[in-house]
Amino acid sequence: MVAELTALRDQIDEVDKGLLDLLARRLKLVAEVGEVKSRYGLPIYVPEREASMLASRRQEAAQMGVPPDLIEDVLRRVMRESYSSENDKGFKTLKPDLRPVVIVGGRGQMGALFQRMLTLSGYQVRILEQEDWPQAETLLADAGMVIVSVPIHLTAEVISRLPPLPDDCLLVDLASVKNQPLQAMLAAHRGPVLGLHPMFGPDVGSFAKQVIVYCDGRQPESYQWLLEQLQVWGARLHRISAVEHDQNMAFIQALRHFATFAYGLHLAEENVQLEQLLALSSPIYRLELAMVGRLFAQDPQLYADIIMSSGNNIALIKRYYQRFGEAISLLENGDKAAFVESFSRVEHWFGDYARRFQEESRSLLRQANDSRA
Q1: Mean pLDDT of 46-58
Q2: Prephenate/arogenate dehydrogenase domain: from which residue to which, for each copy (predicted)?
């Protein structure tokens, strides 16, 4: 038995080495693709190409007796690595005549990420930090674009402190809230203004498939090149008004982050043993616990700013608290029928999205289970 297993495992090892050779060849080809895209200013992420390729590979896998989900999982992981490696080749400069870019808060994590991407695209980038304010007027005198990337609670104040900018200078902010910073920029600068909200953290390896929300400010023709540059980096753009943005972020960020904070606080106060929770957890709970832990591995000031940025956020959280209490009353009353009725009402509200989310979550749950030690 041992000899038979050893012989088979040796063959598997040889196949694995062959897979490594193929992956190395694929990454080399991807690097060449990246050079071509960089030369011609093509985006690193083309959804149509990706969808077509995956559909073809799934069909071919089925014909060969290989589970289509398996090849898609493998290819998606390989493509994620490929997108990151394409960054190393740089990007075409879509506005070569742009004067220096100044990032206010460029040593912060998000500011540093934009500095890197702009530098890879051939732009001259300067950094303006708090200790540089005595030289701010000099640093900004010939700026072609100014990006404000500072904590939310400081954004409007920093914008108001900016010295006069050249009339054609593009003023941009990266805050997680948009209406107040946008109004501050419009008041402080009479030139082009644009609000951006990267819907991702600064630890992403690539902009590919990442969503960046943008809110029009003033003179959109003057920042069309920047939107196109973001797309070249692979980002997916979503246009929305600043007011609508903040209304939606109340649910996407403020309410969600607060609920996660409250759950983490409850776990800590209950002093549960995380090792035992992980040992006993299903993949979905492991994933949920990982997302809770992720929050507490980051800057608490950022989340305090997001949650407390608006009175509307607090009002929404209070309504959530009220409904939480109403749900508890169902349990206290032992009213199973009312619970089922409420559950069914929410299921109906989700509609087809419920099944869709169930399908989408399966791959995430498999990955959570794969990471179990």
Answers
A1: 90
A2: 99-361
Q: Smallest Cα–Cα separation from 41: which of 111, 120, 112, 98?
A: 120
- Quick one: residue 196, left, alpha or beta (phi over 0 = left, psi -120 to 50 = alpha)? beta
User: What Cα–Cα distance (Å) separates residue 347 from each residue in 160, 259, 323, 343, 355?
Assistant: 47, 21, 17, 6, 10
d(CA 107, CA 125): 12
**Contact indicator for 68, 78 with CB cutoff of 8 Å:** no
Each domain of the chain, given as residue ranges in start order, spans 1-88, 101-240, 245-334
Q: Angle 68-87/352-370 helices, nearest 10 degrees?
A: 80
Residue 211 β-bridge partners: 236
Is the pTM of the predicted complex or chain greater than 0.70?
yes
CA distance 94 to 99: 13
Banded pLDDT at 362 (limits 50, 70, 90): confident
Rounded to whole angstroms, the Cα distance separating 176 from 110 reads: 11
**Cα–Cα distance, 342 to 37 (Å, whole number):** 52
Record: fold of 101-240: Rossmann fold (3.40.50)
Segments in the chain forming alpha helices (H): 2-40, 47-63, 68-87, 109-120, 136-140, 152-161, 179-188, 224-232, 242-249, 256-270, 274-280, 283-295, 300-307, 311-332, 336-350, 352-370
- Reported as a single tens digit per residue, the pLDDT across 237-295 is 999 999 999 999 999 999 999 999 999 999 999 999 999 998 898 888 988 999 999 99
pLDDT given for residue 28 in this prediction: 87
- Check residue 83 and give its pLDDT: 79
Q: How far apart are CA 31 and CA 111, in angstroms?
A: 26
DSSP state of 313: H
Predicted confidence (pLDDT) at residue 100 exceeds the cutoff of 80 = yes
* Angle at the Cα of 35 from the Cα atoms of 31 and 41, rounded to 5 degrees: 135
Other Cβ atoms less than 10 A from the Cβ of 181: the count is: 28
- Give the span between the Cα atoms of 272 and 283, in whole angstroms: 19
Q: What is the CA radius of gyration of the chain?
A: 25
> Which is the CATH superfamily of the domain at 1-88?
Chorismate mutase (1.20.59.10)
Question: Can you give the pLDDT at residue 88?
Answer: 67
